[in-house]
Amino acid sequence: MNFLVTGGAGFIGSAVCRHLCANPAYRVTNLDKLTYAGNLASLRPIENAHNYRFEQADIRDERAVLAILRRDDIDVVMNLAAESHVDRSIDGPGAFIETNIVGTYRILNAALEYWRGLSEERKAGFRFHHVSTDEVFGDLPFDGGMFVEETPYAPSSPYSASKAASDHLVRAWHETYGLPVVLSNCSNNYGPYHFPEKLIPLVILNALDEKPLPVYGAGANVRDWLFVEDHARALELVATRGRPGESYNVGGNSERTNLGVVEAICALLDLRRPRAGGKRYRELIGFVTDRPGHDRRYAIDASKIARELGWTPKENFDSGLARTVDWYLDNKWWWGPIREQRYAGERLGHGSVAKSRPSPIESSPAGYAAESRKATT
Ligand code: NAD
Ligand code: DAU
After folding, report:
1. What is the pLDDT of residue 350?
2. Is 224 helix (H, G, I), strand (E, B) or coil?
């Protein structure tokens, strides 16, 4: 089976490439533009594998994508290429519209043209798998509700709005043109090779540098955390065994407040790399201005993928976070150049027209109940 993974030099895409290449029956082409977030060092474990090849290209380049689909006789496209950071989407939404919406439109066109030229048998087996996010469902109240596949879309940020738009395009290409698509919407990934603009790697590396650990607002926002290797296994199943036209929610069953996550990292570092003079890492925590439009909580009901595809996460948050912290302690060769040359950890996404959401203290349970209409319990 021949895979085209787009965005394969990114955090999740590189985990998918490493995972797929372990199967000698698969051949993997990684197509990536190599933006600030793309890093070929994340592919080092497979760069010489017989079943792996890399192609630098932009998913908006329809002709280039079509040529690669034909040259490599692709059976499955896994579309992970995207601008992925909410804070950057607040500072500069244009790139998100370009890659996440226009790029998805163009790669869908290329896939459709390629698919139409296949034999009937190969047409039936072909899949276009679009990798999306739980953020398309929007803001959940603190006190209940989970996202199911049927939860209405209500994105809050330029990033999540652009991902929602791309999901709609993918569905439309299925309904209108018959392209065999599958979608997956997952929660916050974490693990090795995570670009240090996102909360967990940023906090680990700031702590090691004795820099402040920035917690937005009161740190009460809740995310569900999914270990990236568990996600890669889920994506393989969705791409190869998912039912065309369907979407699958993927989650780690590990809801944590942001403050809880930061404190857990500090506690692990206290054990593994104690600070001088008996100081504790949690002393570096600082509360900073909240993110504009900051969704309070995300929670995933992943029972469909468990029931239909037999997937459940292997890692719990404690074991996954310990593996992650250990990986950053052992792999400065990977993150050192990024912190020095690409992104040193400065605050992104302040915005100036924040539409603030109520904090848990300010809001009444009745208020949450009224807002929970978006979520299915
Ligand atoms: P990432 O930012 O680490 O990587 C994105 C990759 O896409 C980079 O290698 C980049 O070079 C490449 N890219 C960007 N624009 C491109 C273009 N126009 N053409 C080709 N390549 C391009 O992102 P990630 O965290 O690995 O996320 C991968 C996918 O999963 C995204 O679609 C994201 O929306 C989705 N997702 C991520 C998470 C998460 O927690 N990280 C959760 C849910 C969904
Ligand atoms: O839910 C899935 C999404 O998870 C993906 O679609 C996105 O691509 C991915 O980036 C991630 O989005 P988040 O915005 O949830 O991730 P981030 O790591 O940026 O932030 C996690 C939480 O931590 C969020 O509530 C904001 C907060 N935060 C973040 C940073 C960077 C802080 O408190 N301090 C920080 O410095």
Report:
1. 81
2. strand
